[in-house]
Design goal:
Helix content: 55-70%
Number of strands: 2
Strand order of the largest sheet: 1-2
Radius of gyration: 17 Å
Largest sheet: 2 strands, antiparallel
Order of helices and strands: HHHHHEEH
Number of helices: 6
Length: 193
């Protein structure tokens, strides 16, 4: 699928990320559109997240990560860290992308800073989700020409920094993981109708 504004001049890695982001937005809209507020906030079990919490969590994660990504991109450009790729990422980066992807084989607790806080109405959360993903997509396009392997982005783990290209891949994989979790909640037999 070619999304709006996916320039063929972008390297394949960036075109692929743009298409992934477009698909993530479409998936979130399809998931949430028919839901009323009770369905939006319904939890499959007390310790499991509602659809609202899944999308709110993604807003928190991406909302906190995008300013860091913006900053490192500005510094990378100012320092002349450019490259054309294809880029190669180390074992840890590739492994973390795989671990973030759905279905999650390893359950990971979200760091406290990334936990969904106050869940708002569906309209507010979905609008924020779409806005954040528009910004993420814009950053992917703006990263064209930067060295996606050399520029490092901090992670929630203070001892780990990921290459910019791998950080983009982690974010999209993480989005798919929690969208799948939200779809699973909606497929539960006792989901309110």
């Amino acid at each position: 699928m070619s999304g709006p504004g996916v320039s063929p001049a972008l390297p394949e890695e960036l075109r692929d990320l743009c298409e992934q982001i477009d698909n993530i937005k479409e998936d979130a809209l399809e998931l949430s559109a028919p839901l009323d507020e009770s369905q939006w906030n319904w939890k499959p079990a007390p310790a499991r997240w509602s659809i609202a919490e899944c999308l709110t969590h993604l807003n928190v994660v991406n909302g906190l990560d995008l300013p860091q990504i913006t900053d490192v991109m500005k510094r990378g450009r100012a320092d002349g860290w450019t490259g054309t790729g294809p880029f190669r990422y180390g074992f840890l980066s590739r492994r973390f992308v795989r671990m973030s992807e759905a279905p999650g084989k390893i359950k990971m607790r979200a760091p406290k800073v990334y936990l969904p806080s106050l869940v708002q109405s569906k309209e507010i959360v979905v609008a924020e989700f779409l806005s954040i993903h528009d910004r993420l997509r814009q950053l992917v396009v703006e990263s064209n020409g930067l060295d996606l392997a050399r520029i490092k982005v901090p992670s929630p783990f203070p001892w780990v920094k990921f290459p910019l290209g791998a950080r983009f891949a982690v974010l999209t994989a993480h989005d798919r993981r929690h969208l799948r979790q939200a779809w699973e909640a909606r497929k539960q037999p006792d989901f309110p109708v």
